[in-house]
Fold:
Amino acid sequence: MTSPTASAPGKVNFLQLADQCRVIKTSPAWTEVERTLQWIEESRRTNKEIDPADERLDYVNRFSKLLRESAPLISNALCCGAIVGACLKTGSRGVRVLNGLSAISHGFHFVEADSGTIAQNLEQVRVMLAGEIPKLKDWSLPNLSIDEKPDSIASWTRVMHENLDAIDLAVADFTFDMPKYQQQAWSVWNERFNRLGFSRTVTFQATLAELFCAAADVPPTFALRFDLNVATIVEWSAMVAVASNADIPDGVPGSPPLPAIASSMPKWAAAIALHALGFRISFDDFMARVHTRLNLHSDIPSTALDKWKWLFSGPPSRASVLLITLGANSVVNGWRPLEGFSILATTQATCTKTVQVLPRRISDDADLVGWIGDVKANIAVLPLSLTHLAIEMPSTSMPPTLSNEVSDLVTTLRNVHNVNVVRLFAQSPTVSPADYGSDTFIIAKDVHDFASQLQRSSSRSAAR
Amino acid sequence: MPITIYEAPEPLTEASFNSAPRLIASDASRQLAHDLVRYCRDEISGRSFLVSGHRGAGKTVLVAYALQEALSASYGETPSLQPLFIPLHGPNLLPNFKPPGKWRAGKEGDSEVQTALKQITLGLHRALAKEMVRSFRERIAEQVGLRFRQNKLRGERWLNNAVELAAQLEVELYECPAPSRLREFWARAGFLNTGALRRKQQFRDPVSAAEAGLRELVALSGACEAYRRISGTFTQEEKRLDADESKTERSTSASTPGKEVYGPLFSVLTGALVGAGLNASTADPYTATIAGILTAIASAAVMKYSNTRSRARSVSRQYTFLYDLSVATLDRLLPLLVERVRAAGLAPVFVVDELDKVDDLSKRMIGMVDHLKKFVAENAFFVFITDRSYYESFRYRVATEPFPPEHTYFGRQLYIVFRPREFHAYVKSIVELPTPNAQTTNSSAAASSSAAADAADYPLLSYILLHRSRMHPIDLRREIGTLRGADGNVKLRSGLVRTSRAFQFDLRIQLAIEHVLNSNEDLANMLEQDPEFRRLTNDAFYSLSRQWLATPEDWVDMRPHASHALRHYLVNRMGSDRLTSAALATAPSSTQHSAASPAPPAPLDLERVSPTDNQFLFECLRDIAELLASDAAFRDQLKRWNAKLEVNDEKRIPQPVLDALDAMPFDLLQRDLAEPGRYQWNFYSSGRPRTPVARQRVNLIGEHAGWPASMQFIRDFGLALDELSP
Structure:
């Protein structure tokens, strides 16, 4: 669809309230109303007559009506957003309000909620905040409405200012203990996994700790968000690497460098992430290798692990793929895990380090410790029972030279483990296929195309 | 992050193997794919399907998609034959150029069955040859990399020879090569044991596995022979000669090489010796001379003696066998051929399309049933694709006659009809809201305005498209095509679908239809028991909006006595054999009370919609009209329905859709206070108010006169927000 005008950064506006945070209704659309306002201004400026029967005038009237009706909700949302966003401690008030409001909106799934539910959720947030921040113990939502009086907006604004100033004052000397909130947030997820297993269909309401983490842009919400269905392959893969203590300088494009957040991430997150990516390692392997290696017993009591049998069950994968992407410019970045296929993404820079921490099958050979720590020493043990190694290639330029380490890995996987090597392109390449020898080509824009071609190439190999 | 429209490749095209095709999933597609997979896994020996639907319902695409599913399944872990798609053109199978009703057609002397057999054979040969050549090439391509890695120069030479071999095979396969020639191709490419086809077949023993290539040759040579029978005059004669001969010969002779010289010489020498002996003993030269002469004569007589005896006896018998290679024998050959093709690793699937173009199909199909039932229904997999009219007459016959022949001819009869949720899923698979790149919740809040606006628009699009297409696949594809801009994105302005009145109409009617479909328990039960009843409900429910588009000035008459008009309309939509295409074309305005209504159908046709069904659908339609005439009640019911969906863990109506309804409360229909049960449309489909009540209503809601004040209010509020977030 053709784009609306961009909003100023750090400023609360109607588009953010409606389309992004879903605090007010999405119809009539602000983008259309804004265009209508511009059209009216233009008509006035050029002395063009405005047809009173023009439908667009109705947009203006309906939007104004919507704002009047939503004024109390807006006032409550801004105040809650200001408090939650205060954990940032930096940035303008606008940025803090928006961050907080966005966290609340995602955490309570405003995208699916009607006005009544949103009002209730804001009240829930207020109760949680009052319980956490002592000076807000007796604070209540402003619920400011706007009537038909001429100075109504001015008085609404004045009272809102007073409220926001009071909030700033109340939270100024409050210490937001982010490591504690992060730990709490991970515990909440741990408990959810204990209770419900890994369910992509169930959505959860956020706890206050999670709201703070989301507003401050730190895990667990960076990868798990509030909905397991939303996280991408790249995000889950980064989680595997970070939680497994791989020395990864930068994992997820657009996110903070992983080492900065690695300290807060529990080890069991690696197992969850592998499950989310579709890998089903055997329970025995897990207990004997992963559990020991990741030191899971420090994070989860072994009794809790018994409840996580779902980690090891599920339909068998049609292909297990290690996918080396182009990083920030990769077509893979938006892909989500696909049922029936196990895909772990990495980049050339982080590939070998990631592979080193991947779990592999138990071997009777004592020298084969089950981890790639040293590629050469563990050459006989294939990590994650991989069937494919996919290397993403730029479509328009010459193929990049693979680093020695990656070349070694490719050679090892291909020649020793008989793993299929495929080249992934976002569109038809302009270079000669001969440059890639006998590797299979896959041209795919989404994960479904990638998977179907992968399956086809598997069947060819099987037939051979 | 614009909303993109994905141009999906059609199933079974080359592109479809790289990029997944999209299909409106339905019970029909699932059933067909399921049985096809079973057939390929050798769990059933054959099936015959009748696939029907309205023109443009996607029948052919559905079958192709099911075939592709079976093909994909054959790549999986479970051993399976590879489906071999054999397209057959209905009008070729049952040609129209002979007088309809007469059970003879095709070439002079060929019966209609023979014509059909010829077409089946032709199709089988063509498909098999195509698949073999394709596989042959594919296997060569697979070996290239390996050979290149071993030795580049030799690899190149091998490649050149191999591709030429494949091209030669393609040429010769249509010239019916002899088995020995075929064997030569396989041997030169190295496929004699492994075969050229890609397969995951279950072999009973290592011997079977080792003869995979030979099985292919058997199938291919069989197909070539069958092709010869139908392509020209092909005769074959076998002669056998049995002969018994005995000869006895006894021969005695004395002969010495050079007897002509030595014989007389020997006689003379003997005579001379005898004469000399006598002369010496008797000293009588005369006596000695005479004795010598007599001895020489006697000696010559002894040297010439010989004896010969001979006896001969001879018996002979000659047999001549003339093969019957006439077309009439194809019915015996085809099952054998199918068996051989299956043994080679391919599962033939015959798809007979365009049968709606065959005159008098109902009668002629019965003729075919009589002759080919065993082969079609039990020995192979056949899919017959027909339009709705044949299906309706078939259904009518099954309902009224005791077990008509076609009843068992088609193992399964599928009518393509879709549920709204299947359409929604399809639209979402084609019209895509790209996943935002890995971003945190915060960066999502700061993401572009366009992305957020598009995300809010997105849920409305499928409702709008479903209504505009009247849940008809081909119209849906057209509507999606209309939405698509040159850059492949949805070309509408962001926010327009949530704001413009014209789009709200689509939303409102579609939601009303879906609400009645889902919330009316009797209807839900009926559809559960007879899923194909949905074809009538779809027709009935969209009759309102069809009429609105065609004749918006007309009254919508939902009074009890008006139900007969709905029945006429439904029968006309069936397109029975007797109805002309002109009658079908009048569909949009053919419902109630329109001046443009077509001529009423014949009484016999009317029986195809029972009065009970008609009355039931009429009542449902009245419920829809009521919802459109009472905005507050409509929205209230929708919200309650939505809450129920949540409890049942079903897909809820997206909030932006409900927001759009709330933002523009109006009645699309207006009740006639003087005549209860009559309604008129308040708006034209363009969004323009049609009735004074509507104009007043829009003005009341919108307070058009007050728009400057509204404008000022919005500006002031915007400034206030700006001020609050410095």
